[in-house]
Amino acid sequence: AVDFEPRRDGPPGEPLAWRQDLFEEVLRHVGLDAIPATLPALGGVDAGGTPMHELRRRATDLVAALGFAEAIHFAFQDRAADEAWPRLAGAGEPLELANPLSERHAVLRRTLVANLVASAAFNAHRGADGVRLFECGRLFPGGEAAEVEAIALAAGGRLGSAWDRPAAVDLPAFKGFFEALFEELGVVAVARPADLPGILPGTGGEWTLAGERIGWFGRTAATGLPFELFVGELRLDRFDPAAGPRRITAPPRVPGVAADLTLTHRLELSWAELAAAIDELAAPPLVGYRLEERYRGTGVPDGAVATTIRFDYNAGERSLTQEEVNERHAALAAELERRFGTGREAES
User: Fold this and answer.
1) CATH no. of 257-347
2) Residues 81-139: pLDDT tens digits?
3) What's residue 4's pLDDT?
4) Separation between Cα atoms, residue 242 and residue 273, nearest integer Å
């Protein structure tokens, strides 16, 4: 308890003490060092934590760990930018501002990509050899539709010094950034080719989750930049906030065996279809597989492609014999050949 008595020194009608004065007096007697630091509580829609807040934190932490810098832009853009890029939500007219700062901020954004491209150009025109930018925020579909939580990425060129020997970002690497994000968020999304506004033909793709379009990616068609720029966007509100992060499996104590299969199949067969078949047929000691190469040229018939897949076999706590691997690999290769084409295998 604080031992003091209030007294009236001011004119009649004024309070004995202002509330903040009383707090200050108590703090002075107790000592500021004895009071733990506490952030003030937020009110309204930002009060407390929510599963979506945690999902957004996990997504932004992962993208930042991949080397991206976070950008924060106005939630406005001009009409040309609104029409230039694919939209994940919103049809018809965008929401107009009654008193915009300028024509460049005339409507509420329906994509995060437009402002990221402008920031990438700003950096490139001032000597940057590359950019990796992302933004996480809300989109405004228009009308009575609810706001949409989204995240967008933009990357291109080389980052780092000559000593680092950095590689320029290409389409497979950019697609891999999204795949890493899906792994972290416990999501199995599928990519499919797509023709998209603002995206160079042949490089665009859409992300689907359980058959629903949740995102897109590709190389920008024309930006006037000294390097190729890749952009993409995802709807975070379509992910399950309760889904846990990916589990890390300890590497086995004994080495495994790798074997390749080169499968010649029709060009229309997508990697997603081929991977689905491998997942269906997978059985121990197969522990993983990955795409090594897709080749079209001498020795491959017209309308076909030769896809090389690396299969990894491991029995965990014991060493595999070559005979075990050969038997399992031959059975898997035979079934893939039966379904999709003719292949030739080479063990390593």
Assistant:
1) 3.30.70.380
2) 888 999 998 777 888 888 888 888 889 999 999 999 999 999 999 999 999 999 999 99
3) 59
4) 28
SS (H, E, C) 152-186: EEEEEECCCCHHHCCCCCCHHHHHHHHHHHHHHHC
Given a cut of 50, the residues of the chain with pLDDT beneath it are 343-348
Tokens of 47: 């009060």
Helix, strand, or coil here: 113? helix
205 touches 192 (CB < 8 A): yes
- What pLDDT is attached to residue 340? 93
Every domain of the chain with CATH number 3.30.930.10 lies at 51-238
How many angstroms separate the CA atoms of 343 and 286, rounded? 19
CATH 3.30.70.380 placement within the chain: 257-347
Does the predicted model carry a pTM greater than 0.70?
Answer: yes
DSSP H helical ranges for the chain: 19-30, 51-65, 79-84, 113-124, 171-185, 271-281, 322-340
Nearest one of 273, 260, 263 to 348, comparing CA atoms = 260
State the Cα–Cα distance between residues 293 and 306, nearest whole angstrom.
8
Q: Which residue has the tokens 């989204």?
A: 150
The amino acid occupying position 264 is: T
pLDDT digits (tens, 9 = 90+) for 9-28: 666 656 555 677 778 888 88
Residue 144: phi and psi, rounded to 5, are -95, 5
- What backbone torsions phi and psi does residue 331 show, to the nearest 5 degrees? -65, -40
pLDDT reported for residue 344: 46
Q: Which homologous superfamily does the CATH classification assign to the domain defined by 51-238?
A: Bira Bifunctional Protein; Domain 2 (3.30.930.10)
> Cα(first)–Cα(last) distance of the chain, in Å?
79
